[in-house]
């Protein structure tokens, strides 16, 4: 029984044309003396022919175009990043640089009272009141420059001066 | 150095290496040569034309992306079919339930959505051939995914055992055993057609 299995395994290679010559000779000898394996061989041969009947049509032009379009998209993406076509896409240094820049930015933004940057003020806070006071003083000074201290109301109105500045 | 690494100076491996070095026309050549075999492989594995097209595109996009990392350890086709087989097996694993339902529906309606138009001379032969192909499709679809992949690569893509073994990541003897079981399963399932003297079988060309 075990030898039948071996011969049947050989039969598959024989049908697909892959059995070495000496084994093929031994197989033919066995088939002459074993009707069970001979029938099995016939069935395997028929199966091989039947499998060949399943043929498929050519690939459509539309699907080729779709792939070409997707590849073109990939190429354009690649060329915007890489200097040469085919350059390595996997560049670990890019990740390191990006991470470093992100960390630095996050650090700078999170710093309270950064030097050289005006502190953000809430309405009604001391800083806001000081600023309003400063603006009013500036307006007053401008008025005095334009109109003179002795002739109040001779020049343009305060409101228009403010918008003109 | 590269030349020594190319197995058996496989021309497709050479094309892949020239593509890696920056020649896009090499990739176009590979695409032209292997697009159809890859689509057909997926179609026979999954039996859905739309999915076959989609997965074939995925294979070539992966090759495109992986060009920088490509190292020729085997023939190009081995690498290509390894990507394709992994995608097909993953797809089958992820959609197992849907596959069962769709297959049942398909067998019920008897539709052959993507088979070659029949050129049999008589209507009777045409019907018999259609019935045989339908049964072959169903029999192949009933195989476990790894057996299915092995049979498709062996029967329809003329791949050697060694190459199939490399694609599936197993030994050559394991592939022989796998194929034996697969063909035996197919024979058992199609025995009513393959038995000599059967009406449908006797009409073969």
Question: What does this protein look like?
Answer:
The complex is a heterodimer of chains A (165) and B (205). Chain A is mainly alpha-helical. Helices cover 69% and strands 0% of the residues of chain A. The C terminus of chain A is likely disordered. Chain B is mostly helical and 205 residues long. Chain B folds into 2 domains: 114 residues, Rna Polymerase Sigma Factor, Chain: A; 82 residues, Arc Repressor Mutant, subunit A, CATH 1.10.10.10. The N terminus and C terminus of chain B are likely disordered. The interface between A and B is large, with 40 and 53 residues.
What is the fold's blueprint, element by element?
The complex is a heterodimer of chains A (165) and B (205).
Chain A: H1 2-15, H2 21-33, H3 35-52, H4 61-81, H5 92-110, H6 126-147, H7 158-164
Chain B: H1 2-5, H2 11-20, H3 24-46, H4 49-65, H5 76-94, H6 96-109, H7 123-142, H8 145-156, H9 161-168, H10 172-189, H11 191-194, H12 199-202
Helix pairs in contact in B: 2-3, 3-4, 3-5, 4-5, 5-9, 8-10, 9-10
Keywords:
heterodimer; A: 165 residues; mainly alpha; B: 205 residues; Rna Polymerase Sigma Factor, Chain: A; Arc Repressor Mutant, subunit A; 2 domains; 12 helices; disordered C terminus
The helix/strand class of chain B is mainly alpha
Oligomeric description of these chains: heterodimer
The end-to-end distance of chain A, rounded to whole angstroms, is 109 Å
Helical content band of chain A: 55-70%
Low-confidence stretches of chain B: 1-5, 104-112, 199-205
What would you say the CATH architecture of the largest domain in chain B is? Orthogonal Bundle
Strand content of chain A: under 5%
